[in-house]
Amino acid sequence: MARGPVIIVTGTPGTGKTTHAQMLAEESPVPLKHINVGDLVKEKNLYEEYDEEWQSYTVDEDKLLDELEPIVSEGGIILDWHTCEIFPERWADLVVVLRCDHTKLWDRLEKRGYPLKKIQENNEAEIMEVVLDEARSSYPPEIVVELQSEGTEDLEANVARIVQWINAWKEQHAEGAEQ
Ligand code: ADP
């Protein structure tokens, strides 16, 4: 039996994935390991090249999936990344898509020092709901949850809601529970 659920936290860059994942790892009733996939790609050289113009890495998806498979199959994982469609459907127990008002998102990305072009691209992606569409077309609708992430109250309420979901998961997966 898996030790814990696999939760994908996704959304346009700047919507609050890492902030949510860190808080969730602290507050979860079962141990969850937070994997910041972007950091893992850099640390383990799981990319084909670095694109100077866009200041981003072109990920080697096969290498990334090979690296993640044994880790994810243990369960108890939060996958924090700005895209989710490459992860096999069977991996995910819950897919959280974070959303943010685009003007607020623009400010967050500007503070991060992103080049204008990259801010524009991400801003447009948020308006067009690109990540939400991706999640909805890659996973069953009942496991995809869209959550607003604009202020601290949202952050706290979202984490509390996911903790509740984990408690239910725990009960369903307790020894002797009917599947
Ligand atoms: P991501 O991992 O999606 O790129 P981060 O978690 O790094 O986003 O958040 C980007 C910035 O926005 C950080 O400065 C973070 O503190 C802030 N932020 C994100 N979500 C919220 C929220 N719900 N309330 C307040 N600040 C937030």
Q: Nutshell version of this structure?
A:
This protein is of the alpha/beta class. The chain has helices at residues 17-27, 37-43, 61-73, 102-111, 116-127, 130-138, 152-172; strands at 6-10, 33-36, 47-51, 56-59, 77-80, 94-99, 144-148. It is built from 7 helices and 7 strands; from the N terminus they run E-H-E-H-E-E-H-E-E-H-H-H-E-H.
How would you describe this structure in keywords?
179 residues, alpha/beta, Rossmann fold, two-stranded antiparallel sheet, 18% strand, binds adenosine-5'-diphosphate, AMP kinase activity, ribosome biogenesis, EC 2.7.4.3, ATP-binding
Bound small-molecule species? adenosine-5'-diphosphate
CATH fold node name: Rossmann fold
* Major β-sheet strand ordering: 2-5-1-6-7
Largest sheet: 5 strands, parallel
| C-alpha geometry | globular
Residues in helices, as a percent range: 40-55%
CATH architecture: 3-Layer(aba) Sandwich
Low-confidence stretches: none
Number of domains: 1
Put simply, the count of helices is: 7
* Cα separation of the termini: 12 Å
Order of helices and strands: EHEHEEHEEHHHEH
Content of β-strand: 15-25%
- Tell me the radius of gyration: 16 Å
